[in-house]
Design a protein that fits this description.
Chain lengths: 388, 388
């Protein structure tokens, strides 16, 4: 089986020449007569240029097929091969990576497993983020969680910048929140997932993930790009980590935002996360006012779902976005709201209720026009944020 | 102590506004009256805009000072804080990061430690790369090493894409090369370092690093950006890893090459590697025909040296570059040649000899004009590659 990669070059680049440079330079390299006796073996490691075209706008696309034997069935060695040295060679962007189906890891739980743990099968899941991001005590976290959990929230996560700080130790936060989760379970029968941010140097991070799971963490959050795909894969293939891993896209823009350099969002947050073993992946949605291409978002969604990974569009998500998000995503989506829940004019609990009202209203085919809305949490949200 | 970051924005961006967005959005975020009782604590986590200017070309620079208490004294949490979410917000490039001196890790060996192990104090070190990159057997590696090691080479490294493959297991390669290293030591008294590429998911990679060191590896090579800074830090702070770590820049271009997005090469390959615990860092030099800014190269050199980390300029290094490289770097540099040694017209051993001839010629103040060169390995190299 082979690995196919599409590289896009801006106008003025000799794409045909560059494609050959990649096919040789990112694999075996060149060799001379001294290695003639190894000719066959060396050739078996070379990549091949299998396609190319130049579009009317002057951009060119080259497709290169790499032997799977050159890599280690993981994302890190894949990245080294397809764009390691070549990323430094000039303007070029990796816009698609097609991997063999078996390549890398599968999620341990994914869409079906997360739904089972929550016992919610027939609607999108609603997710919130602790806010403010820094400066709260473990007790503050527990108080916030209590409010939103009883209002019906499915999942909450740490802010990605909330690490294991002296002033806010991760384990304390988990212990305080775990009590609320147990209490909610006892009183309502409902499970609420709390994705705890797991951080540290790779060795300590893995140890801490074990500790957190032992201490009752029922989900983990990982900043995959600042810690490394090798850490995601380590957690994903670790039998002791029997909870879903939520992958956060922090730093993705450094690699993906430039039009002519780096790697497409759909590759990093779609293909690579899906084959890296994440159970759910957060990524920028086009609902806010940030510069995201809806076509890239659709590609991410489809790459993730093709491996049973939960898509978690984020940014600009508030109750008034629900009709549009359901149109774009259907049921298999986690709607992740930060301010869209925590900054509801009445309370975070009202923010959660507004989402469930919105889901129900879409289900009943009812309008979101302000004048048709009853006096409710949803109406208050729509007054503040409008409807998408 | 605080962490200062310079962000550069292209013309048309309201830099003043964006700087405020970063200072708040990448730290505590906003809060409302409910958290008034935490005001002081929340404020202590906020970053501050401490400088800004717009240059005549329309580019703006904003300097933001982040509290050190927000992060975990490592590179991964630092990246999440300074550019996690914001990297996805539009055109902006991190062009400088100023860390407190004690932040992160120091190299275990660095310039002084590597020189001690090699017992070479007064000249640049000469380094080669196994070539072809894939397709050789462990015995082939040993045969190549034998040739260059007896010719006087100081260090050799795996190609960064040479992983732990079924057709070429890392341990076999080490075992075969280790015999040569022992033999050279016995017969000449000289130590030759072999930086073995250490790969795998983070847990396995760390285990493998332990195994390789136990089996006699005297240096490691790590693709820091494809495996993660958290893996570099894990190895750098691991007492069992008592050998130098050579950091490879594979994938750096995906983050650094765009003029208006991502993070500057000097930050990723200079500042972050130097505080991440690498002993020696490879990075693109401006000697070849690749698009690297000599000013960035100088910044990388100085960041690394300021923490006793060996700079390893790579790309376009051949014997004819030695006078220019010595002018730019002086003695504390590792000259890393791929084809510049392995593709010498006579042999890889002649490639190594040509480098030492070149060093001696510079020392004696002798010319590199072709007609002044004796019939020698250096002359053959200069005939092929010229003089920089």
């Amino acid at each position: 089986m082979s690995i196919e990669v599409d590289y896009r070059f801006p106008p003025g680049v000799d794409a045909e020449r560059q494609a050959k440079v990649i096919a040789v330079g990112q694999t075996a390299g060149t060799w001379d007569a001294r290695f003639a006796h190894h000719e066959e073996k060396l050739r078996s490691h070379l990549a091949e240029v299998v396609g190319g075209r130049t579009d009317p706008d002057g951009y060119s696309l080259a497709t290169i097929s790499f032997p799977e034997t050159n890599v280690e069935n993981d994302i890190s060695s894949l990245l080294t091969m397809i764009f390691g040295k070549y990323s430094m060679a000039g303007a070029a962007k990796v816009v698609a990576v097609r991997l063999p189906e078996h390549y890398g890891s599968y999620p341990k739980l994914g869409i079906t497993g997360i739904r089972e743990r929550l016992a919610v099968v027939d609607r999108p899941l609603i997710m919130a983020i602790f806010k403010p991001a820094l400066g709260l005590s473990a007790e503050d976290h527990a108080a916030i969680l209590k409010e939103v959990a009883y209002a019906g929230l499915d999942i909450i996560k740490d802010d990605e910048i909330m690490g294991d700080l002296e002033v806010a130790p991760t384990l304390k936060r988990l212990e305080a929140c775990r009590q609320i989760i147990d209490e909610v379970k006892q009183q309502t029968g409902r499970t609420v997932l709390y994705a705890v941010n797991v951080t540290g140097t790779a060795d300590k991070l893995i140890e801490k993930a074990h500790l957190l799971v032992r201490e009752g963490a029922n989900a983990l959050l990982l900043n995959v790009l600042t810690y490394g795909f090798s850490v995601l894969s380590a957690l994903a293939t670790d039998e002791k980590i029997n909870v879903p891993i939520f992958a956060h896209p922090a730093l993705a823009g450094a690699m993906c935002a430039s039009p002519d350099y780096g790697i497409a969002y759909s590759v990093v947050l779609g293909t690579l996360m899906a084959h890296g073993g994440a159970d759910a992946v957060l990524y920028p949605a086009h609902y806010g006012n940030l510069p995201f291409d809806p076509a890239e978002e659709i590609r991410i969604r489809d790459s993730l779902r093709s491996r049973n990974v939960f898509p978690v569009p984020s940014a600009g998500i508030h109750p008034g976005v629900v009709p549009k998000a359901l149109f774009d995503y259907g049921q298999d989506v986690i709607l992740n709201a930060g301010t869209g829940i925590m900054d509801h004019p009445d309370s975070p609990a009202a923010g959660v209720k507004a989402f469930f009202e919105a889901l129900e209203r879409v289900k009943q085919g009812e309008s979101f026009e302000l004048e048709t809305l009853p006096k409710s949490a949803l109406r208050r949200a729509v007054e503040k944020w409008g409807v998408k």
